[in-house]
Amino acid sequence: MRAEVAQWRGAGQSIALVPTMGALHAGHISLVGAGLASADRVVVSIFVNPTQFAPHEDLARYPRDEAGDVAKLAGAGAHLVWAPAVSEIYPDGFATRIVPEGAALPLEGAFRPHHFGGVATVVCKLLLSAMPDIALFGEKDYQQLAVIRQMVRDLALPVAIHGVPTVREDDGLALSSRNAYLSENDRYIAPMLHKALSEVARGRDPREAADALLVAGFTKVDYLEVRDAETLAPFDPAAGRPGRVLGAAWLGSTRLIDNVGF
Fold first, then answer.
1. Were both Cys, which of 62, 119, 122, 238 would link to 49 (CB 3.0–4.6 Å)?
2. Residue of 25, 28, 115, 162 marked catalytic
3. Whole-model pTM?
4. Is residue 195 packed enough to be buried (19+ CB in 10 Å), middle (13-18) or exposed (0-12)?
């Protein structure tokens, strides 16, 4: 991968990186399209990162389809697919990790305290391996995007981080690899999360919206909160800054996350 990228650089071409965990859907393909619009060459990484999963989470059953993913990426115009082994990213004796704070601490950070350390460490390694000019991430994982922007800024990494709008089904459900876990009935209920977040963005009380999700059939709401769109600190209406409504809720054993800006 580095040798190929070096040849492109030698020819004066710019590089975009799209980091993924595979099980690709139209949301990922939109990242490739944004990369093609922003750079001469697009590299897509496929790596299911074990360090961002807690022992009780779904690493073992996380959907994988490398052959199908490669075919989709070829059709989308990606120039190179990089699918490193775990042993390549985390070789024997690996002992250095990034511990993000700031945007990593609330929301997902409170419910999954291990998570963003694993994300930041692997994304840093991916960026340093590919050395792209641009890296693209979906806004569906909005807190992840904020954490990565913070890391790149704090560590002065020479790459521009681009957020790409969430791709949704016609009924508003954000595309996600984990949607494959939903039962037929859960799939019918799932779009209510986006509806609730949108109502809060228009002024509804977040607690009322969370209660409405439980009435609709969600089994648990981890959080539904209004935050500063950049720092993810509690939102201050008097500050005149953009806000973001973020939520995470359970349908049976499936955990959905989503967000809406305002």
1. 122
2. 28
3. 0.96
4. middle
